[in-house]
Design goal:
Layout (H helix, E strand, L loop, with lengths): L11 H13 L3 E4 L4 E4 L2 H7 L4 E5 L2 H8 L4 E2 L5 H10 L5 E7 L8 H8 L1 E3 L2 E24 L3 E11 L9 H4 L4 E5 L8 H20 L3 H32 L7 H29 L2 E25 L2 E10 L4 E2 L2 E2 L6 E2 L1 E4 L5 E3 H6 L5
Parallel strand pairs: 3-4, 5-10, 6-15
Antiparallel strand pairs: 1-2, 2-3, 5-9, 7-8, 7-10, 10-11, 11-12, 13-14, 15-16
Helix pairs in contact: 8-9
Length: 362
C-alpha cells in the first residue's frame, strides 16, 4: 500500500490535507484513479462516524455509480470533511525549536539600556554580562469580541518563559532567525508555566487587541448613544404626556395618584433600560490559543546594580538576539512588562503606575 497516496483531481491541496490527516492519525491509505481507500483505526472510525474501511473521493457519486462501492465525498461542506476539519483543529499545533546564531552581541549594552529604559529616581550601573540559555514562547491566539455584533481575528504574543517579560517584535523577526525544529522528545508545559502563560495572555490581550477593535468599538458606541438618545426621548415624551393628563377635567383623585406614582417610577425605569442597553453593547473579549512555538535560544544576561541614593539593588536584564534589543523588565507589583520604571522606598522594582499608586509589596 502507498501511505503517501493522494487522490488525483483538481483540488490537490484539499486531497493532500485529507490524506495527511488520515496518515497522522494512524490510517493506511491506497490510492486509485478516482478515489482513495482508507483503513481506519477503531477510534478514528468512531470519531468520524464512518466504517473502518472506507473510500473517499471528490466526486463520490461518480465512484458509487461506476464502482458500486460506498464512497464518501471530501468536497467542501461535505459532512465527512467538516468532521475532519473539526478534529484537525481541535488541538493547537505545538512546535519546539532551537535558535542558532553565529554571532551574539557582547558589548554596548549600556547604550541600549540608555536608549530603551527610563529609570525614575535611580541610576543603573552594569556590573557584568554573560551568555546563557533561555526560552521564549510565541503564541498565536484567536480573539473573539462579542457585543450586539461580533468580530474575530488573530493576535501574536511572545514572552520569556523564564522572566515573564513580553518580547515585542519577536514574532515579526522570527522568520529571519536560523532555527532547528525538534521532532522528538518534545516537552510539555508544567502547571506553573501554563498558569503563567494564561496570566500573560489575560494581562496583555486586551491592550493588544485594542487597535484591532477601534472601528468595532466606535460602532458599538455609536449604536449605544443612538439607542440611549431614543430612550431619553421616549421617556421624556411619556413623562410630559402623563403630567399633562393630570390637568384634565373630570379625572378622579385615585387616577391622579396612580399616574403620579407611575411618573415617579419613570427615572428608575429609564435607568434600568439604559443598564440593559449598556449590557447589550458592552464588549466581551475572549482568547483561544491556536498555535504555539517554544524556542530555546542563546541570550546575554546583563547584571546591573540600580542605585537610589545610598541604596543599591542588584538585578539582571536580558538581551534578546532575535530582536537585537533588551527585553523589558517586569514590575514586581503588577507583573507588567515595562521600559519605564523605578524603585519604591523599599527598593522594589515598580512601573511608574505602581510607583504613583503605591507598591503592593510594601
Amino acid at each position: 500500500m502507498n501511505s503517501n497516496a493522494s487522490i488525483a483531481g483538481k483540488d490537490l491541496d484539499l486531497s493532500r490535507f485529507v490524506a495527511r490527516f488520515f496518515r497522522e492519525n494512524g490510517a493506511v491509505l491506497e490510492s486509485g484513479n478516482d478515489a482513495m481507500d482508507v483503513l481506519l483505526p477503531k477510534y478514528l472510525s468512531a470519531a468520524l462516524d464512518v466504517e473502518e474501511y472506507i473510500s473517499v473521493a471528490e466526486d463520490a457519486e461518480m465512484v458509487k455509480a461506476y464502482g458500486g462501492k460506498i464512497c464518501y465525498s471530501i468536497q467542501f461542506q461535505s459532512p465527512l470533511l467538516d468532521r475532519i476539519v473539526s478534529m484537525a483543529g481541535s488541538k493547537p499545533p505545538f512546535l519546539q525549536a532551537a535558535l542558532k546564531f553565529h554571532y551574539i552581541k557582547t558589548q554596548g549594552f549600556a547604550n541600549l539600556i540608555k536608549k530603551q529604559f527610563e529609570f525614575h529616581r535611580s541610576k543603573v550601573k552594569i556590573t557584568g554580562a554573560g551568555e546563557t540559555k533561555t526560552k521564549y514562547i510565541l503564541l498565536t491566539c484567536r480573539f473573539l469580541a462579542q457585543s450586539d455584533e461580533q468580530k474575530q481575528g488573530l493576535l501574536d504574543f511572545s514572552f520569556n518563559l523564564d522572566t515573564g517579560a513580553l518580547s515585542p517584535g519577536m514574532p515579526r523577526l522570527m522568520p529571519n532567525a536560523e532555527k532547528e525544529y525538534q521532532a522528538k522528545n518534545i516537552h510539555g508545559y508544567s502547571k506553573k508555566e501554563i498558569r503563567r502563560i494564561h496570566e500573560r495572555v489575560s494581562q496583555y490581550g486586551p491592550d493588544a487587541v485594542e487597535k484591532e477593535l477601534l472601528e468595532f468599538v466606535k460602532s458599538m458606541n455609536r449604536r449605544f448613544k443612538r439607542d440611549a438618545l431614543s430612550l431619553d426621548e421616549y421617556y421624556n415624551a411619556l413623562e410630559k404626556e402623563m403630567k399633562e393628563s393630570l390637568s384634565r377635567t373630570g379625572i378622579s383623585d385615585r387616577l391622579i395618584q396612580e399616574r403620579k406614582a407611575k411618573i415617579a417610577m419613570i427615572p428608575d425605569e429609564l435607568a434600568a433600560k439604559k443598564k440593559d442597553l449598556l449590557n447589550k453593547y458592552s464588549i466581551r473579549i475572549s482568547f483561544t490559543p491556536v498555535a504555539a512555538l517554544t524556542v530555546t535560544t542563546a541570550c546575554v544576561k546583563v547584571l546591573v546594580t540600580l542605585l537610589s541614593g545610598h541604596r543599591k539593588k542588584r538585578t539582571s536584564m536580558m538581551y534578546n538576539p532575535v530582536t537585537k534589543q533588551m527585553d523589558p523588565m517586569v514590575c514586581q507589583s503588577c507583573n507588567v512588562s515595562t521600559y519605564d520604571l523605578g524603585l519604591c522606598k523599599n527598593m522594589h522594582l515598580n512601573c511608574t503606575a505602581c510607583l504613583n499608586r503605591g507598591c503592593t509589596l510594601c
